[in-house]
Amino acid sequence: MRARKLEKKIYSIFVEGELITSSASAAELSKLMENTYRDVNIALANELVKIGEDLDIDALEVIEMANKHPRVNIHSPGPGVGGHCLAVDPYFIVASTPETTPLIQTARAINTSMPDFVFSRTKILMEQINGKKITVLGVTYKGNVDDIRESPALEITQKLLNDGSYEVSVFDPHVNQSWIEKDFKKATLDSDLLLVLTDHNEFKTLTEEDLSEMKQTYVFDTKHIFPNHVVKNHYLSLGNIGSLSRIERVPSF
């Protein structure tokens, strides 16, 4: 206890926020639970996407309405959870007490399933539009960073490449790798589908002119950030994934 008081006194010299004294174990579990809470919340949103697909209800609209309640804050769904924190920290808790963490383990399973979910829906969409080329937008685990650790976007991209059914081009302005096309127009040349997997700011302002090299202008936006008015009836998100079976091939711009 005396050591904690001394530590708090030292930190108070340069820390303006509230200083909390606790045991090292409680402090560590608190940090792990911060990220686990977010992982579980995202899993709820991702499960809602699958419910919406079955019921043909826009999951994003449901989330927007539910979050108007002052005590509800459902996170955004997506292609999975990555990075060195959210995708990892829950496992430390599970490893320490596996018998008492069924909710955390289920949430991990749901989020881990999302790359396969996006991959399978991408294949269905490509079959319906008779597509041959996919342009992947973003392979980092979150927007505006160059970090690809535990990235679900990278996992989906690898699944598409391993499948061998399509030509796959990758564009990510934040990642410098030889297999990533640095020119957007070249990345989208003769492409049938933009698959948005990361919410980089650069993707939020794309225009009709930017897509002029595409063969067909379809977009599957797993991050709900693409300006969907640019592609009008060609736009599919995790919110309206239930409409996948009704997509008809329409002329490109």
From TrEMBL:
Entry coiled-coil feature ranges: none
Q: Which InterPro entries match?
A: 6-PGluconate_DH-like_C_sf, UDP-Glc/GDP-Man, UDP-Glc/GDP-Man_DH_C, UDP-Glc/GDP-Man_DH_C_sf, UDP-Glc/GDP-Man_DH_dimer, UDP_ManNAc/GlcNAc_DH
Report the superkingdom from the record.
Bacteria
Enumerate the Gene Ontology biological process terms: polysaccharide biosynthetic process
Instruction: Indicate the segments forming the UDP-glucose/GDP-mannose dehydrogenase C-terminal domain, all copies.
Output: 135-228
Q: Which SMART domains did the record assign?
A: UDPG_MGDP_dh_C
Read off the Pfam families from this record: UDPG_MGDP_dh, UDPG_MGDP_dh_C
Q: Name one GO molecular function term.
A: oxidoreductase activity, acting on the CH-CH group of donors, NAD or NADP as acceptor
* Listed Gene3D superfamilies: NAD(P)-binding Rossmann-like Domain
Q: Which SUPFAM superfamilies match?
A: 6-phosphogluconate dehydrogenase C-terminal domain-like (SSF48179), UDP-glucose/GDP-mannose dehydrogenase C-terminal domain (SSF52413)
Tell me the PANTHER family matching this sequence.
Answer: UDP-N-ACETYL-D-MANNOSAMINE DEHYDROGENASE
Q: Which family does it belong to?
A: Belongs to the UDP-glucose/GDP-mannose dehydrogenase family.
Please give the name of this protein: UDP-glucose dehydrogenase
Q: In which organism is this protein found?
A: Listeria aquatica FSL S10-1188
